[in-house]
Design a protein that fits this description.
Radius of gyration of chain A: 21 Å
Number of domains of chain A: 2
CATH topology of the largest domain in chain A: Rossmann fold
Helix content of chain B: 25-40%
Largest interface: A-B, 45 and 48 residues
Oligomer: heterodimer
CATH topology of the largest domain in chain B: Rossmann fold
Structural class of chain A: alpha/beta
Largest sheet of chain B: 7 strands, mixed
Largest sheet of chain A: 6 strands, parallel
Strand order of the largest sheet of chain B: 3-2-4-5-7-6-12
Distance between the termini of chain B: 48 Å
CATH class of the largest domain in chain B: Alpha Beta
């Protein structure tokens, strides 16, 4: 028998669980980048805690925590260029923030206001809003990358999804097209081991999720998603490949969902405390802080100052969010179509009579 | 019209091809994609020769995956392209439904106008061509229920040309349902002048005073034939082509029924919760006191569409339409 095809999945890790280096850092990683990444990770964790508190006190709707995902999302956000397009799922707060979506806009979205998807930031005007229907966003990213390719632009789209999303046809169809058309797109699967209560092992019998790239004829790599450097390195390589017209990449980022699925979920119903404790041993924020400490780049004074600063930043965002009044009732018609079709005018008039700030 | 211009007779599928070519010529952002649209020119030949003229980058053969086609169409549209995607048959559009319902129709709303989806899904639909299972249904009502989406159905080569141009130029998503029974059944002179026809508007094809006949798509043929034969018997029919199923121009229908006092709605799709029911409910709300007889519907049945040996029993026939009109005209 002849071997007609061979493929292997590699796994990458730079910074170990205890903050020590496993291998030398890539040359494009410098202290400034690591310090910056750490600060953003701390910010988003603080934001996350605050968002959960707001939900618990009735000031926010159902909210999906990003606890434990900070390295992945900060690495994606810092690795992407302004001109790229980010296509998130719903656990990507840090990347959205780094792209220019404000913290108060994110709260607005999870607080039940469409303006939370309007993304007023400079860098994110073409980014997609949060995507709730699982895996549908992969097709959008492939379409966006197709537009880049059609127009000959050196840009890439970056799309994320959870381990559960890799079970859907949308994901496989998108990988497949990205291979055939050699699209400038980077697929990132945040394998945090859980899709609500469904374990990774129940999603797929394959040893890795990265190997789903094999069928599409594209590279698939597995990286330690709790290690900022591993993710940044993989993103850096995948993006450069995309810019150079060398096609797509699938990155499986190994992480652990330290939170419930959302604030509407109770993970104690289906997973043990022992498992969660092991998850905490791997968590990304402490790991990077330990590395920075080990290399004399960080101190407890700096940590105290940072904690105070991010807390204040988050409080300001909350104040802004809470001060924004709901739109008038008629806003439900404002962006249904570019211009309101005549047949809808009567319904519009009826809704205007319901009130809201512009029609009191 | 300039009499020097040679106006060719075109079938509906030729008129669609003309409109696509015109749209691609006037706007570089217009791209075509779908299964077999490139080298093959589409299974119905609607995109024939367009790849030769506009190249691989603008006429794209996709993998056989309707979810993907609909999803990348959304992605392309957010980037300022104006993608026109062909879904080969309506029976295969359901894999695209999630993208249509959850993204294409609502992206403008959920980004408060920052992103939009100026796209067209062209979908051949309807029965009467002896096609295999899954190839003959008319499920426009499923789509008419989706806010933020336009559903447009041409009923002649001229309206196919004008409405498709409008659909492509429109800044919002349009589901363009092509009655494949009419693809080659009739031809008429179509001037390739780039003139669009309005969306969200019904077309009154024939004025009359005794009864209003409302239909769309392929059933316009039978409806117009009935109106002709009824006029010979002294029944003066007003005939309305709905054309835009959603949003629905009820004003034109309402004005007509206020005048005639009678209405029969004809459609291929199953009867219950169909677009005919919506028109009927609206007329009951708005013109009850103008009605001289109950509003009646002549439609397909609430069954699975029979395979083609028996599709003739399902599709509204001229006899069924005439019987129903007679019932309405003689109501006391």
């Amino acid at each position: 028998m002849n071997k007609t095809f061979e493929y292997s999945i590699t796994s990458t890790q730079y910074i170990a669980q205890d903050g020590t280096l496993i291998k030398p850092l890539p040359n494009f990683i410098n202290d400034e980048l690591l310090l910056n990444a750490y600060k953003e990770m701390v910010l988003i964790r603080t934001f996350d805690q605050k968002a959960i508190a707001l939900q618990r006190t009735g000031k926010l709707g159902t909210y999906p925590s990003s606890l434990g995902q900070e390295a992945i999302n900060v690495a994606i956000g810092l690795a992407m260029k302004k001109d790229d397009v980010f296509v998130p799922y719903y656990r990507d707060h840090a990347t959205q923030y780094l792209r220019g979506v404000t913290l108060s806009e994110m709260l607005l979205y999870w607080g039940g206001d469409e303006r939370g998807g309007s993304a007023i930031g400079e860098n994110c005007k073409e980014d997609m809003p949060v995507c709730v229907p699982i895996a549908t966003q992969f097709c959008h990213a492939a379409g966006i990358a197709s537009a880049f390719k059609i127009r000959g632009e050196k840009r890439a789209s970056v799309v994320t999804g959870g381990d559960g999303s890799s079970s859907k046809g949308d994901f496989l169809e998108s990988l497949n097209l990205a291979g055939v058309w050699q699209l400038p797109v980077v697929f990132v699967i945040n394998n945090n081991q859980w899709a609500i209560s469904t374990r990774r092992e129940v999603q797929c019998h394959g040893e890795t999720l990265a190997q789903k790239a094999i069928g599409a004829g594209i590279p698939g790599v597995q990286v330690d998603g709790n290690d900022f450097v591993s993710l940044y390195d993989a993103m850096h390589e995948a993006l450069n490949k995309a810019y150079a017209g060398k096609g797509p990449t699938l990155i499986e980022a190994m992480s652990y969902r330290l939170s419930d699925h959302t604030t509407a979920d109770d993970a104690t119903r289906y997973r043990s405390n022992e498992e969660l404790k092991k998850g905490w041993d791997l968590e990304p924020v402490k790991r990077l802080r330990d590395y920075l400490h080990n290399n004399s780049l960080w101190s407890s004074d700096k940590e105290t100052q940072l904690q105070e600063r991010v807390k204040q930043q988050v409080e300001e965002a909350v104040e802004t969010y809470l001060s924004i009044k709901p739109e008038p009732a008629s806003a439900m018609f404002d962006h249904l179509f570019e211009t309101l079709p005549v047949p809808l005018q009567k319904q519009y008039d009826e809704v205007c009579s319901l009130g809201g700030i512009n029609h009191e | 019209m300039n009499s020097k211009i040679d106006v060719q007779n075109q079938t509906m599928v030729e008129a669609i091809n003309l409109a696509l070519a015109h749209a691609m010529e006037e706007d570089d952002n217009v791209v075509l994609l779908g299964e077999d649209v490139g080298a093959n020119g589409g299974v119905f030949r609607a995109t024939v020769d367009l790849r030769k003229t506009y190249g691989l980058k603008r006429v794209m053969d996709t993998p056989l995956a309707e979810t993907l086609i609909s999803g990348i169409t959304v992605g392309m549209a957010t980037q300022g392209l104006k993608p026109v995607a062909e879904i080969q048959f309506m029976g295969f559009v359901y894999a695209a439904m999630e993208q249509i319902v959850s993204h294409a129709s609502r992206l403008r709303n959920r980004t408060r106008g920052r992103l939009s989806c100026p796209l067209v899904f062209r979908v051949p639909f309807g029965g009467g061509i002896h096609a295999p299972e899954h190839h003959s249904e008319s499920t426009e009502a499923l789509f008419a229920h989706i806010p933020g989406l336009r559903v447009v159905v041409p009923s002649s080569p001229l309206r196919a040309y004008g409405l498709l141009l409008s659909a492509i130029r429109n800044p919002d998503p349009v589901l363009f349902l092509e009655p494949k029974r009419l693809y080659r059944a009739v031809s008429q002179p179509v001037l390739d002048d780039g003139k669009a026809l309005p969306l969200d508007t019904c077309f009154t094809l024939r004025e009359g005073s005794d009864i209003t006949l409302v239909s769309w798509g392929a059933m316009m043929q039978e409806t117009l034939q009935c109106a002709q034969s009824l006029s010979e018997k002294g029944v003066d029919c007003e005939v309305i082509d709905v054309a835009s199923i959603s949003p629905l121009d009820m004003n034109t229908i309402e004005c007509s029924v206020t005048k005639t006092g009678r209405c029969v709605i004809i459609h291929e799709a199953a009867r219950s919760v169909g677009v005919g029911a919506e028109i009927s409910a609206h007329l009951a709300e708005q013109c009850l006191l103008d009605l001289k007889a109950p509003i009646k519907r002549v439609t397909g049945y609430d069954t699975i569409m029979p395979y083609f040996r028996n599709e003739g029993y399902y599709l509204p026939s001229i006899e069924r339409i005439l019987d129903t009109v007679n019932e309405v005209m003689t109501f006391e």
